[in-house]
Specification:
Blueprint (H helix, E strand, L loop, with lengths): L2 H11 L9 H4 L62 E4 L9 E6 L5 E8 L2 E8 L2 E4 L6 E7 L5 E7 L2 E8 L2 E5 L6 E9 L5 E7 L9 E5 L7 E2 L6 E6 L5 E7 L2 E8 L5 E3 L7 E8 L2 E7 L3 E6 L5 E3 L7 E4 L5 E3 L4 E3 L2 E3 L8 E8 L4 E8 L3 H9 L8 E8 L1
């Protein structure tokens, strides 16, 4: 399935607030999100009014984060890293034989396992890096997209057959399809997994859009049967903690309204939102939740113990991933620490780093690309082409 189609599916499934914010500013490569090749990677000229992926704003349902993006971000990034991140050591990741294009999408909390995707035509081809060693996962469908991995190396993602998506778990060298409830359902934006192996995602009836009729689903570890979570109408879940709490938000009329954290019984903690603003959550780790607040659009970081909300300002990029130290990856593929968003070092010249996830050990994953000049971009557009940011190489940064 093409990146653009997945993005549009996500946009139909998760709507953003009415806003003048450009989609490319919201999705770094999505997607996380999400989206579906990651927040930074998916923006192909879709309309903001309808929604997001990953994952996804309001927007990205996780996000999923930063692989190459068909549309450039609203602000051209600088290839000069902030002094605060110059100490982050970059290591180029290998690629499996025969796969020339792949970008990391997620890393487990220990930094041992990384999952990402390359492409073959318009279809995804999943990759698993274990302690830096790359392996191509088997392909048992038209398109197989890995979206998350836990500390035991269990991978989850989406498989597409005949234009229908299903959720899978990959462990012990084999795929297991996770069953959807009876009926015709479309799962979105991307499944998430915790250390125990519990998996969550949302689903809406086939043919619906904007989250109409959405349900939130949980597959307990080892189970293939979905449990419908007892959440309020319009609730979406995008990430799950090891203790079973889930982050997400409530959407109304196709727009994200409120960020929440729920347990499996549906008992929730509503997160702080400034008066008159809309918000949603995309990622949870330890005491921290990240997401976005609109409008204007800011990356948001909530402390679950104190309830305090911290926002970045100025560029309308939500947070799409967070680690247990409160480090955030934003929708433009940057690392946010102490409220400051920074582009990681990429090797100089026109090389620019776009990152997608961060482990609890400070390992950041993403890719490096070479930016085109505005004149080069205009030449492509004048010739009827599309702007595509192809990764030069996948990489990690130890910060």
């Amino acid at each position: 399935m093409s990146d653009e189609r997945r993005l549009r599916d996500g946009l139909e499934a998760i709507a953003v607030p009415a806003s003048g914010v450009r989609v490319e500013a919201l999705l770094p490569a999505a997607r996380k999100q999400k989206f579906r090749r990651n927040a930074a990677r998916a923006t192909a000229g879709a309309a903001v009014a309808v929604g997001v992926l990953v994952a996804v704003p309001v927007v990205l349902l996780r996000p999923t984060a930063a692989t190459p993006a068909p549309v450039l971000p609203a602000q051209r990034p600088s290839s000069s890293p902030s002094p605060s991140v110059t100490a982050c050591r970059m290591v180029k990741l290998p690629l499996p034989e025969g796969l020339g294009d792949a970008g990391p999408e997620a890393v487990d909390p220990t930094g041992t396992y990384i999952v990402g995707n390359g492409t073959e035509g318009q279809d995804f081809r999943p990759v698993l890096w274990t302690r830096g060693k790359a392996s191509a996962l088997p392909v048992n469908a038209d398109s197989v997209q890995a979206t998350a991995v836990n500390s035991s190396g269990v991978v989850v993602g989406l498989a597409t057959r005949n234009n229908r998506d299903t959720v899978f778990r990959f462990a012990g060298g084999a795929y297991t399809e996770l069953k959807l409830p009876a009926g015709e359902w479309h799962p979105y934006p991307e499944p998430a997994i915790n250390a125990a192996g519990d998996v969550v995602i949302n689903a809406e009836p086939q043919g619906n859009s904007g989250g109409e009729g959405v349900i939130a689903l949980l597959w307990p570890a080892g189970s293939t049967d979905a449990v419908r979570l007892p959440l309020p109408e319009g609730a979406h879940v995008v990430d799950i903690l090891d203790d079973g709490r889930m982050a997400g938000g409530i959407y109304k009329d196709g727009t994200a309204r409120e960020p929440w954290v729920w347990d499996r019984q549906g008992k929730g903690q509503k997160l702080t939102v400034p008066a008159g603003r809309n918000a949603t959550a995309y990622s949870i780790s330890g005491d921290w939740v990240t997401g976005g607040v609109w409008e204007p659009g800011n990356a948001a970081l909530w402390n679950l113990r104190t309830g305090k909300l911290t926002q970045t300002t100025g560029d309308q990029n939500p947070g799409q991933a967070v680690n247990a130290s409160g480090w955030v990856i934003d929708g433009n593929g940057r690392l946010i620490r102490d409220g400051k968003a920074s582009r990681l070092p990429a090797g100089g010249g026109r090389k620019v780093a776009y990152v997608s996830d961060v482990s609890d050990t400070g390992l950041v994953v993403g890719h490096v690309t070479e930016e085109q000049t505005e004149a080069e971009e205009q030449d492509i557009l004048d010739g009827g082409g599309q702007l595509e940011r192809q990764p030069q190489f996948p990489a990690t940064w130890q910060c």
